[in-house]
Structure formats: C-alpha cells, structure tokens
C-alpha cells in the first residue's frame, strides 16, 4: 500500500541515463532558491517584529544562517505559507502549511484545553503527512519534543 502512495504522489526516485537519481519533489533548484532569498532579503517588517532577516542571507552560497529563535518562529509561522506556495507541489506545500498552523496555534500563552486536545490529535496526522514526503533523516528529537509538548 505504501508503494502505491509513492507512485501516486510521484515520490518514487528514478535513475536517469547517467545513473543519477531524480531530485526529491521538495528540492528547490538554484533559481528558485535565489528568488526566495532575494525576496526574504527585500522583506521589511515593523520595528521589533524580527531582526533584519536580510543579514541572515548569503546570496553567493544561497544559504540562510544566523537566525535567532524568534526569527525561526516568524519564518515557520508567517513566511512558509507565502514563500513556497508556487515552488512546491500542492501536497508538500499543504503539509508545510499544517506545520505552520500548528506552530501558530501553540504559541499563545494561554490555550483552551479543548483546543489543545484537538491539536494533540492533529499532530499525529501532520507528522504522518510529513513522513510520507520527507526521508527519515529529516526527523530528529525536536519533532518528538513538539509532539510531547502537546500531551495533556
């Protein structure tokens, strides 16, 4: 059954005639990375909302580095929904949106116990959707911590 899902979602790796494997569906090419990093570099936020994300961008190596933890939260909660929409397949983008919405929901200082129970139920589905897309090496203890944090 899992093999059928892989074929249906075009996640199956295929070797080309040069012996190289095709790129994963969530992989961005250099042009896409450049567009994203130039867009992030040009972003302006209200004072105190985030640090200057443009300083965290290296356009030569196309890398993002030195983000503060709050900047990472802003990126996860606010930028992922708009940044990757046109560059990733819909099922990958939807999985990332679910993670983004989860982080938005749990960042509030006070939570309704009913909302927490619903979030706890949805975490398993979100992680399952991510596991269908990303390789096992993507997951580490931080995912387990976020799941455990919602345990009532």
From TrEMBL:
<dbReference type="Pfam" id="PF13960">
    <property type="entry name" value="DUF4218"/>
</dbReference>
<feature type="domain" description="DUF4218">
    <location>
        <begin position="110"/>
        <end position="147"/>
    </location>
</feature>
<protein>
    <recommendedName>
        <fullName>DUF4218 domain-containing protein</fullName>
    </recommendedName>
</protein>
<dbReference type="InterPro" id="IPR025452">
    <property type="entry name" value="DUF4218"/>
</dbReference>
